[in-house]
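Suppose you are handed a protein chain with no further information: no name, no annotation, nothing but its sequence. What can you learn? This example shows the usual starting point.
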Amino acid sequence: MNKMGSLVCTAILSTVLGWTAPQNVLAQLLPPIGSLIVTMTAPVSGSTVSGTVTVSASASVVGSLTVAGVQFKLDGANLGAEDTSGPYSVSWNTVTASNGSHTLTAVARDVLGVQYSSNSVTVTVANDITPPTVNITSPANGATVSGTITVTANAADNVGVAGVQFKLDGAALGAEDTSAPYSVSWNTVTASNGSHTLTAAARDAAGNRATSAPMTIAVANDTTPPTVSITSPANGATVSGTIAVTANAADNVGVAGVQFKLDGAALGAEATAAPFAVSWNTTTATNGSHTLTAVARDAAGNRANSAPVTIPVANGGSATRIEENNPAVNASPAGAWVMRGAEIAAFSSGAAGSSDIAGATATLSFTGTGVSWIGLKCSVCGIATVSIDGGAATPVDTAGPAAVGSPGLASGVVFTASGLAAGPHALVITVTGTTTSSGAHVIVDAFDVTGGGGVAPPRIEDTNPAVSYTGAWVHGTDPRATGGTFAESRTAGAAANLSFTGTGVRWLGFLNDNNGIARVSVDGVFKREVDTYAASPALGVVYTSEVLAPGSHTLTIEVAGTRNPASTDTWVLVDAFDVTGSSATRVEEDNPAVSAGPAGAWVLRGAEIAAFSSGAAGSSDIAGATATLSFTGTGVSWIGLKCSVCGIATVSIDGGAATSVDTAGPAAVGSPGLASGVVFTASGLAAGPHALVITVTGTTASSGAHVIVDAFDVTP
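A reasonable first move is to predict its three-dimensional structure. Written in structure tokens, the prediction is:
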């Protein structure tokens, strides 16, 4: 039958019987309309291949056909999926085939389903399937190790070793070592004492891997800290001249050294052999209370602090006059004491504190063997009680015949105590509100301290506005704390910041078995880490700064969040601070030495705004309003406030050029932690009387123009 007849028959069968001829049959029945030519283009026949290669082919059209797809074949089996668009290729991972000879072909398919095969390509697969060999050479199986050691291994391969990964108990130990000799440093202290398994896994470039035989080793590190205690001087002993400080120390392996400390700072060099001792010339320390500790260490780096020993230093000294406005004198409650001047009597420094409110107190912290209260006896003066170190109260009647303002009326000694133990003391004057005269006023002018260093370093409690906190802190009460209160935190990054004026500072904290490590900085410069762990609880000095330049400073205590291995937690506690070398006199805003004008331009503000030095401060936003301080000294600091409604003032001294002071700050008034601080300082003035004038400009860089005057610190 001719082809036309075939088409007719096929059409009839399709119509009558519903039969459809396969496409390849149709292609044979239809007249020729073209063909496909398929040629393998890669890899080259006879080549050797390995790894992953690309197999490709070209498909050329003869006539009017279209290429529907190309199916590659490996040894007659499909290799990947059919590629339906040119250029035609498939990725072949030769590792899936055995090493040796293999045949590649490509079969093209046209739209009618007719298939056309390419020439065959014979290739030789030659992949590296041999894994490396590896064995650990050190430490030996069954060895006992401690400290930091080197783990080593030998590895070899028929082609080349790409890397060796050491493993400890199945987890990676350090980074993979990619070049011989193969080793890793291991600090065994990071692993628990006991049995552990070391292995080494080697690999080559082809991805073949092998693991060494395991090595079982025993880790035995010394994690037991020494024990240490100070044996001399005894706690509470009064010392003078040059003495020997001694300690006993022991360790399960051996004591490497004992460092003695005075108020938290190193006292002499570390003693590295028993008997552990250091010579201390007590005349290099101020008279008063000091804290001795000893820190023992062993060769493994374990450390332990002794319980602190508190000892008074008493090397003699003459009487020291302490005025009523010295930071060593604390008057409470706020507003109960009023400043009086020459209109009442002749006072030691021109002014004195006065109160007739029952329960009001004035407390002097001092170091010495005797103290005298300089007060006033007058016709409106009443009865007070005096107690020292919490002892029995002694009534003191300050009634006298002279009326206030009488010619010749002057302050004098109204109470004296002598024969006190050398060391720190606290004297408390309490107003009783009772009297044998026509008034109950009690006058505190000054104090004379004998037999010691006079005024103790100003004690700043944890609740003082000079101390600010960031992060999470817990504030609590404890009768063992110096002021009955403390602050503590275990949150890494939490910080306590003390702003102070002086040449040194001591941090009084708490040592305990659940305490951690703190990072101490002064004026933004990191000084050192302080370990506040101790086997038994004790209050004491945990850090003492070096001698600082006179002036304003900031001490920062940051919770590190880390701990001594012997501690059970990371708590850091702040009890109080002692500022040394502070000879500045605090002059409050209501002192007669401060005059404000014009009348009505200044308003008294209190705790609703911020924490102020004596609980209150003057505020004005009236342009031209002034506050003038008359003082005698060589330096002065203005204690003001920076806030979101604070403005610009000018400051001049002795009529000199005005200096602009911008008191704008980010914090809103009433914000938690907002407190006054130094906003202006002048030093190097000629010794003698001076006048400082603060002038409100009425201008601002914030949303208000208020200028706050809290107090002044005057240096002699």
